[in-house]
Amino acid sequence: MDDLKKMLKQSQPLFSFVLVILIIVTIVTKNIGYALGWVYGSAIGMLVYFVNIKMVDLIILKKSKWGVLLLMLKLPIYAIGLLPGVYFKLYPLLVTSFLALMLPKYTIYWTTFRERRKHE
What we know:
Elements: H1 2-29, H2 33-61, H3 66-87, H4 91-100, H5 103-119
Helix pairs in contact: 1-2, 1-5, 2-3, 2-4, 3-4
């Protein structure tokens, strides 16, 4: 749980920054799909990150075979993240939720980049 809390704390600035931009875009275009897609996709992205943490714990630390089942569970979760945009044909929601699904990856890359810059 510490890894998840750390990820949530580190991703807040990026999440907030993009959300403010998308709220402005939402006001200008009068299409709520931008901001809604970002929030929805970010929540699903964090859920996938949580599944990854549990999967690694089960496979490596506890030597359980249930981790493979969790690996198969990740793809339907990603599909659930994209489903509203496809089903309702809201392409701004689809694009922003797709980009937001990768929020944990963006956060990891940004944190690693900042740590490397400190050591130089």
